[in-house]
From TrEMBL:
UniProt GO cellular component terms: cytosol
The protein's name: phosphoenolpyruvate carboxykinase (ATP)
Broad class of where this protein is predominantly found: cytoplasm
Listed pathway(s): Carbohydrate biosynthesis; gluconeogenesis
Keyword annotations: ATP-binding, Cytoplasm, Decarboxylase, Gluconeogenesis, Lyase, Nucleotide-binding
Organism: Gossypium raimondii (Peruvian cotton)
Family: Belongs to the phosphoenolpyruvate carboxykinase (ATP) family.
Top-level taxon of origin: Eukaryota
Reactions mediated catalytically: oxaloacetate + ATP = phosphoenolpyruvate + ADP + CO2
Enzyme class: lyase
Length: 551
C-alpha cells in the first residue's frame, strides 16, 4: 500500500492475474497429477527400474536350471560361481551374493562351500569371512556405469562408445604365455623350435591359479560372464569369464556369443573358465616366470589364468588357442581367417597376416559377413567362433572403412584411443598411447552380417600375401599341394609402418597364418584343410595384394 498526496491508500496494478481459489475449502487448483507412490527418495528410485522377467518357459527341457523356482535357480548359479572361485588349498569357494556392493543386494543367499578336490583345508581365512559380490552377465548400460564410476580412464566418446585404457600392456605378451605339459599334451601339442607353446608344469599352474583366485576373492565385487563360443549349435563351447574390471566384462560380452535368456537359465557348468586377475602381477620367483606377466593354459582342467596384464585381447586369443585344440579333436578345422558369403550361398575364406587386406576384402558390401577373424569348418559347413569383431583403429576413417566407423557407437569398447578432452571426439591418427588401438563391437553392428554366423562349405580358399619384393603374380590358382605349402608357410612381407622398426620390406612367415595361436603341429591343420577342400570341391587361390613385376 502506498499513500498519495491526499492520504488515500492505493494498490499498484499487477500485470499477473489474481489466483482464484475454490470456494469449497479454499484450495488452489493443482494439475500436476496424482502424487507418486513413494514415501522416501529411495522408494522413488526403486520405482524407476523395472525388474527383468526372471524366467523364460522352457518346454520339455531337462537342463540344470530348467523347471525350478527363480530362488533355486539363483542359488544354483551362485553355487556354480562359488565353485569356480574355490581355493584349492582350502577346498572351498567364497560366499557370493548377487548385486553391486554399492547398492542394495537383491539376493543374499549363503552359498554352501563347494569341495572342488581333496586338499588340505585351512580352518578360516579373511576371504572366507566376507561376501564377494557377483555382477553376473550385466548389460552394456550397466557395465558403462560400473566403468565410468569405478575405473579411471573410462569415458564416453562423442559417438557413444566406451573409451578405456589397458594399462602398461597395449598388446599381447606371447613370450609370457605358458601351456601345462602333462602325459597327454606332451604327445598331442606342438613343442620346441618354432612353436608358440612354452611349457609349464601342473604345480606352477596351480600356484598361479591360487594367486589369481585369492586376488579375485579379496575384491568387493567380481564380474562374471557366462557365454558361448562357436555359432554351430552342435559344437559350441560354454565359457565362463571371471574378471575384476567392467572393461573386460564388456569386451567379452561383445566378443563371445551372447546367450538368450533361455540359454542362460540352462547354462549349468562351463566347459572352460578364465580367471582374469590382470591387475595383479605374478610372482617372478615362481618357476617358469620370466616377467611379472603370465598367461597360463591348463587344457586338462579347462582353465586359463591371466596375471600382470590388463590387455583384453589376451582373453580373446587365449580362447582361440583353446579352440585350436578342442575342435581338431572333433575332426573340426579351426581357422584364423575372415569369411563371407555371396547372395547365392557361395562361401569364401580369407587367410592373411596383418597388412594383407584380410579385413578389407572379407568386409564386402555385396556379400554377407560371417566373421572377420576366427572360424570352424565342420561337416555342417563353416561357423564363426566369436560373437563380435576386434578391429584395428589406427588411421581409421569413414571413407576407408565405413562399416567399422559406423560400428563405433554405444556398446563398443575403444581401447587406448586418444580423444578431445572437451568434445570427446576420437583422433584415430594419434598414437600417443599405442599404435595398436582397437574397437570391440558385436558382429550385428555390421549391417550385412549374417546372423546366425554360419554358412555352407566354402567354394574358394583365398591366401593373401602382400609381396613387397614383386615376385608373386597378382593372382595364382593353386593345386591342393600348393595350397598346403602356402598355408603352412604363411608368407607376407612386412612393409614400413606395419610394425615398429620396419624401414625396409622384410619377409615374414607365420604357419597357418596364425602361428601364435595354434596348438598342434602346422601339418595337422594343413592336412585337414586339404582333406576338406578335396571333399567339398573348394578352389585354392594365392592373391598378391602388394607389388608385382619388381619391388
Amino acid at each position: 500500500m502506498a499513500a498519495n498526496g491526499n492520504g488515500v491508500s492505493t494498490t499498484p496494478k499487477s500485470p499477473l492475474a489474481r489466483i482464484q481459489t475454490q470456494k469449497n475449502g479454499g484450495i488452489c487448483h493443482d494439475d500436476s497429477g496424482k502424487p507418486v507412490k513413494a514415501q522416501t527418495i529411495d522408494e522413488l528410485h526403486s520405482l524407476q527400474k523395472k525388474r527383468s522377467a526372471p524366467t523364460t518357459p522352457l518346454d520339455g527341457v531337462q537342463g540344470t536350471f530348467a523347471t525350478i523356482s527363480e530362488d533355486e535357480r539363483q542359488r544354483q548359479q551362485l553355487q556354480s560361481i562359488s565353485a569356480s572361485l574355490a581355493s584349492l588349498t582350502r577346498g572351498t569357494g567364497p560366499k557370493v551374493v548377487r548385486g553391486d556392493p554399492a547398492g542394495k543386494v537383491q539376493s543374499v543367499s549363503h552359498v554352501a562351500h563347494h569341495h572342488h578336490i581333496e586338499a588340505p583345508t585351512i580352518s578360516v581365512s579373511d576371504s572366507s569371512l566376507k561376501f564377494t559380490h557377483v555382477l553376473y552377465n550385466l548389460s552394456p548400460a550397466e557395465l558403462y556405469e560400473q566403468a565410468i564410476k569405478y575405473e579411471k580412464g573410462s569415458f564416453i566418446t562423442s559417438t557413444g562408445a566406451l573409451a578405456t585404457l589397458s594399462g602398461a600392456k597395449t598388446g599381447r605378451s606371447p613370450r609370457d604365455k605358458r601351456v601345462v605339459i602333462d602325459d597327454s599334451t606332451q604327445d598331442e601339442l606342438w613343442w620346441g623350435k618354432g612353436s608358440p607353446n612354452i611349457e609349464m608344469d601342473e604345480h606352477t599352474f596351480m600356484v598361479n591359479r591360487e594367486r589369481a583366485v585369492d586376488y579375485l576373492n579379496s575384491l568387493d565385487k567380481v564380474f562374471v560372464n557366462d557365454q558361448f563360443l562357436n555359432w554351430d549349435p552342435q559344437n559350441r563351447i560354454k565359457v565362463r569369464i571371471v574378471s575384476a574390471r567392467a572393461y573386460h566384462s564388456l569386451f567379452m560380452h561383445n566378443m563371445c556369443i551372447r546367450p538368450t535368456p533361455e540359454e542362460l537359465e540352462n547354462f549349468g557348468t562351463p566347459d572352460f573358465t578364465i580367471y582374469n586377475a590382470g591387475q595383479f602381477p605374478c610372482n617372478r620367483y615362481t618357476h617358469y616366470m620370466t616377467s611379472s606377466t603370465s598367461i597360463d593354459l591348463n587344457l586338462a582342467r579347462r582353465e586359463m589364468v591371466i596375471l600382470g596384464t590388463q590387455y583384453a585381447g589376451e582373453m580373446k586369443k587365449g580362447l582361440f588357442s583353446v579352440m585350436h585344440y578342442l575342435m581338431p579333436m572333433r575332426q573340426i578345422l579351426s581357422l584364423h581367417s575372415g569369411c563371407n558369403m555371396g547372395k547365392d550361398g557361395d562361401v569364401a575364406l580369407f587367410f592373411g597376416l596383418s597388412g594383407t587386406g584380410k579385413t578389407t576384402l572379407s568386409t564386402d558390401h555385396n556379400r554377407y559377413l560371417i566373421g572377420d577373424d576366427e572360424h570352424c569348418w565342420s561337416d555342417n559347413g563353416v561357423s564363426n567362433i566369436e560373437g563380435g569383431c576386434y578391429a584395428k583403429c589406427i588411421d581409421l576413417s569413414r571413407e576407408k572403412e565405413p562399416d567399422i566407423w559406423n560400428a563405433i557407437k554405444f556398446g563398443t569398447v575403444l581401447e587406448n584411443v586418444v580423444f578431445d578432452e572437451h568434445t570427446r571426439e576420437v583422433d584415430y591418427g594419434d598414437k600417443s598411447v599405442t599404435e595398436n588401438t582397437r574397437a570391440a563391437y558385436p558382429i550385428e553392428y555390421i549391417p550385412n552380417a549374417k546372423i546366425p554366423c554360419v554358412g555352407p562349405h566354402p567354394k574358394n580358399v583365398i591366401l593373401l600375401a602382400c609381396d613387397a619384393f614383386g615376385v608373386l603374380p597378382p593372382v595364382s590358382k593353386l593345386s591342393l599341394a600348393q595350397t598346403m605349402y602356402h598355408f603352412i608357410s604363411g608368407y607376407t612381407a612386412l612393409v614400413a609402418g606395419t610394425e615398429d622398426g620396419i624401414k625396409e620390406p622384410t619377409a615374414t612367415f607365420s604357419a597357418c597364418f596364425g602361428a601364435a595361436f595354434i596348438m598342434l603341429h602346422p601339418t595337422k591343420y594343413a592336412a585337414m584343410l586339404a582333406e576338406k577342400m578335396q571333399k567339398h570341391g573348394a578352389t585354392g587361390w594365392l592373391v598378391n595384394t602388394g607389388w608385382s613385376g619388381g619391388r
